[in-house]
Design brief:
Layout lengths: L2 E4 L9 E3 L4 H7 L7 E4 L10 H10 L4 E8 L5 H18 L3 E6 L2 H11 L6 E3 L6 H9 L2 E5 L20 E3 L8 H16 L3 H15 L15
Helix pairs in contact: 2-3, 3-4
Bound molecules: zinc ion.
Length: 228
Amino acid sequence: MFDAHRHYGSSMSENALYATSSRYEWELLSSLTPPALGGIGALADNPLPEIEAFEQILKTFPDFQIAEVGLDRRFPEIEQQEAFLKDTLALAYELGRSVSLHCVKEDGRMLSLLRSLQPNLPVLLWHGYTGSWETAQEATKLGVILGYGSRLFGSKLAREGKRLVTLPYALETDFQMGDYSQILWTQIENFSKLSGCTHDELIRNNDEIRTILTHNTSTRRGTGRTPS
Ligand SMILES: [Zn+2]
C-alpha cells in the first residue's frame, strides 16, 4: 500500500512519500528509488531555509513533492513560520507540486491562510490530522486531503468512526523507527475496524491519493507493491 507520510528508516524504497523536516535530510532523498517518493520539507525546530533553496531543489528534481511544512506552536516565531508557509504554497502551486502540511495547535491560522490563497492552492495533504470534525470539513472544502496516522485512534476524531471516510483521506504511518511492515499493517488493520472499510478498499484509496499527489510530476508511477 502507498504510505502517504513516513520518514527514513531501514528501507528506502517502499511505496511511500518520504517526508523530511529540515534541509539536513534533503540529501537522503536522492538515494530513493521508485516507487518511493521524495518530499522536501522544513519545520521551525531548525532555522527555516530561504524559499530560493526550495525553489532550486524542486526545479532540479521534478519528481519531488513538498513534505513537510507548516505551523507549529511549540516552535518559535509563528509569524515567520506562516510567511514561509505562504511562500511555499505559492511556489508549490506555480511548480505543480503537492504539499504535505504539518500543523500543531494552529488549525485556525492554517485554515485562514489556505482560504486567503484560494483558488491558487496546490494539492494539499494535512498530514497526521487529529483536529475537529468541523475543521476537517472546512479543510476539505478547500481541497485538502486528510492524512490519518496512528495518533488518530487516541483522539476525539476517532469517535467519527465510519464518517471519517466520507471526506477525502489517506492513511499514513509517520514512520520514524521500528518494524515498518508491522507498523503499516497495524495502521491498516486498526483503520479497517474503525471505518468498516476492507483492506482492499483502503489500499485502493491510498493508491488513488498517490496519483493525486503526484499528478503533475510523476512519470514513474508506483507498482502498488504491498509488504508481505
Ligand atoms: Zn512526519
